[in-house]
């Protein structure tokens, strides 16, 4: 997921995407614990996507409160 794609989304879309990624992260942790995880790089990628979305959400909320 690229930063430009994240910035183009609305805050509601970002929250739903964040929820989806957290569920995926949960499933990946279980797969790793049981030895079923094939793509180990996906864990890191999901973690970075979650951080990216949280950062953009914080920027948008800060900009919204600053403009008000």
From TrEMBL:
InterPro entries: Ribosomal_protein_uL29 (IPR050063), Ribosomal_uL29 (IPR001854), Ribosomal_uL29_CS (IPR018254), Ribosomal_uL29_sf (IPR036049). The keyword Cell division does not apply. It comes from the Bacteria. The keyword Ribosomal protein applies. Keywords: Ribonucleoprotein, Ribosomal protein. One of its GO terms (cellular component) is ribosome. Belongs to the universal ribosomal protein uL29 family. HAMAP family: Ribosomal_uL29 (MF_00374). NCBIfam families: L29. This is Large ribosomal subunit protein uL29. The gene is rpmC.
């Amino acid at each position: 997921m690229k930063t430009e794609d994240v910035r183009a989304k609305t805050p509601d879309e970002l929250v739903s995407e964040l929820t989806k990624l957290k569920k995926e992260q949960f499933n990946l942790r279980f797969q790793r614990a049981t030895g079923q995880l094939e793509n180990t790089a996906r864990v890191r990628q999901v973690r970075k996507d979650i951080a990216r979305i949280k950062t953009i959400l914080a920027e948008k909320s800060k900009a919204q409160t600053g403009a008000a």
